[in-house]
Amino acid sequence: MKEQSAFCNQPLAYAHSLPDRPETTWHPLEAHLEAVAKLACEFAAPFSASGWANLAGLWHDLGKFAPEFQEYLRRSNDAHLESKPGRVDHSSAGGRHAVKSVGPLGRVLAYVICGHHAGLPDWSNEHHQHADLEHRLAEKQHLERAQRGEIPGWLLDQPLPTEKAKGGTELSLSLWLRMLFSCLVDADFLDTEAFADPEKGKQRKRYPSLAELLPIFDTFMDTITKSVQPSTVNELRAELLAACQNRATEAPGLFTLTAPTGTGKTLSSLAFALNHAVKHGKRRIIYVIPYTSIVEQTADQFRKIFGNAVVEHHSNLDVDDPAKDNPRSRLACENWDAPLIVTTAVQFFESLFSSRTSRCRKLHNVVNSVVILDEVQLLPPDFLTPVLEAIQELGRNYKVTFVLGTATQPAFTPRQGFEFNFNGLPGLREICTAPRRLHDALRRTRVELIDHLDVPLPWLDLAEKLLGHERVLCIVNRRDDARKLYELLPKKDSYHLSALMCGQHRSEVIAKIKAALASGEPVRVVSTQLIEAGVDLDFPVVYRALAGLDSIAQAAGRCNREGRLELGQVFVFQPDSAIPVGHLRQAAEIGRQLLIEPCGDRLAPERFEHFFRQLFWIHGERLDRHNILGYLRNDSELRISFRSAAEHFHLIDEQGQATVVVLHGEEGARLGAFLVRLGAERFLLRKLQRYTVNVPRRMHHELLQRGAIEEVHPGIYLQRQGGLYDQNLGLCADLAGIFEPDQLIC
After folding, report:
1. Distance CA 321, CA 360 (A)
2. What does the pLDDT read at residue 326?
3. CA distance readout (Å), 442 to 261, 438, 542, 565, 674
4. Is 210-434's fold the same as 444-600's?
5. For residue 494, what is the enclosing H or E element?
6. Which of 202-206, 288-292, 368-372, 436-440 has the highest mean pLDDT?
């Protein structure tokens, strides 16, 4: 039973204040702790951990009972005070109390509570001893200060949880802790938001259910089916759709969807996901895509069907500098509360291995969902073992159904003894009833090798070859290659696509390309590999710079896509520039070996089995190159290195890139002005994702120094110089006089 306050209705302590408002309007600490505990319990219920979440919520802010903290609160008088200079440590007290009350298992709560603002810590870290959990729990003064603040006895004396931690894989314990952390962090943010900005809080959770979305989707698909012209391609698309709908009733688990490009995998996989989710009571669908460009196109397609039930979430506007991560940015971060999420592989998997609050906040909403991994062959081999382990763990213990979709299915089945053991993903079930028959029926291209891939093809010679075709697509490996080749073509009928163009710009250019193709106008497109997956374009001729066999197949998927020609032409050439080192170069060399072998069908499904086996064999033990499992592997004494794992888990070289919000078009300029005036509001950041570009950090630093960009809010940089963004090429610093052209890759 709760104790009565000594001051009648006056609370003993406050959790948050309000600027220039009397204390009677402030946030009572006991009310905050109870509300957070209640929310955290709800979030943890789907994976049977409500008892642990309840204690985490009740004890997470015990340190705020300290007289020093209450004095600090009155002095600072700010609802979002955790980033203020001279702040008082208010999280260590709850962690220490958890260990004292629960014993060794109290470390479960200590990780979660001590990290609820700064992020999940390592148990021990010689480089960050002041922040590791072992040293923080050894400091007695934080709990002693809190106890001087007369913590109510009912709050401290709580029954211990009875639920057991998850088990079964090497990541079971660390992911279970991370899920508890997500529940606490999201509950804390939501209750703080409800106090500080009640109107914003009321706007949340106004989404339809998946059961309401299914008939909308069925009506849309019926309309599409009735409107298409009869053809072999459309008949096979209908067959794939029917297979996805029929197999959706099967028990949850791990599925593959293997079908050639152009067979409608996007909508067919969504049909499976919706029907499966409604049948088995799943809470949401998360569509995970390798490239930002495809996120934009897929989200647009889904919004045309479902409207605002879709949330598009990139990683570009996440504050990637922990020093600039503040309470306002954390409240604005995405928590995936919508029924349909479209996001990137970087955002999805790095969140599963992150230690930061803003990234982890959404993880509990992955529980009991359907996750579609589109173009799964693009997962980087250096992280393949921990990624597959996480997929297996989510399927085993968190009721997540996975669909691994691609035209070039990686060799993920377990295999022993080819130089090393590969655990892969046991229990995969294929949705497509006859993938090989589908491939043979939809063979629409012939792959030809220019000069047998023996010598590089000069850019000028390549440009002349492209000019020999009225409608042609050329895909290269590097952004500077795309620009160099584009500048050799006449601008009237030519288009350029690369990641130095913001997403909105790319969407506009792709729409122009589609219109030109539909009208039969001449159109020549030079693009990086961002066009290879999920971009629905149909050229009679495609040129592809040498790459992995999977990339060649994806490029071929943009050729004769609708089967209007007997066979489209795909030309593979050795580029007149070095293929980027690392995975891309290794994949290209294996691709070269397989392409030059005599073969009737260079892109037959069994060829990809050979390709991926060789690629995985080359990597061997480096399929966990940074020892992520070593940091996170189950430990009976709960010695887990969350922070170290997060620092090493980056699917792309995040450290070498930084984000700029660009002023593309009237809408970009308008949103940029809103950003300056309103700050990092959640609704605005969602819109601004379409207007971001990643550039090398060296260039980013120089642009900042020259005043071409400005840090308008912590970690958010806005274009200020007009000439910085070109309407054909995107963000090019040399055009603004910042760099000479030969000093940068653009």
Report:
1. 15
2. 47
3. 9, 6, 17, 12, 48
4. yes
5. strand 494-497
6. 368-372
Helix (H, G, I), strand (E, B) or coil at 448: strand
Q: Which CATH number fits domain 444-600: 3.40.50.1820, 3.30.1490.20, 3.40.980.10, 3.40.50.300?
A: 3.40.50.300
Q: What is the DSSP string of 534-577?
A: S----BSEEEEES--HHHHHHHHTTBSTT--SS-EEEEEE-BSS
10 Å CB burial of residue 105 (0-12, 13-18, 19+) is middle
Structure confidence at residue 416 as a pLDDT band (50, 70, 90): low
User: Would you state the structure tokens that stand for residue 584, as one six-digit string?
Assistant: 């891309």
Domain boundaries of the chain, sorted by first residue? 14-202, 210-434, 444-600, 654-743
Nearest in space to 12 (alpha carbons), one of 146, 152, 156: 152
Instruction: Provide the pLDDT for residue 317.
Output: 59
19 Cβ contact partners less than 8 Å away, ≥ 6 residues apart = 77, 78, 79
The CA-CA-CA angle for residues 385, 389, 394, to 5°, reads: 150
User: Which runs of consecutive H residues, i.e. helices, occur in 197-291?
Assistant: 198-202, 210-227, 232-247, 265-280
Q: What average pLDDT does the structure give for the chain?
A: 88
Largest interatomic CA distance in the chain: 89
What's the fold here for domain 210-434?
Answer: Rossmann fold (3.40.50)
Q: Give the model's pLDDT for residue 293.
A: 64
pLDDT tens readout for residues 48-68:
999 999 999 999 999 999 999
Q: What is the mean pLDDT of residues 191-216?
A: 85
Tokens of 209: 């259910």
Q: What is the CATH number of domain 14-202?
A: 1.10.3210
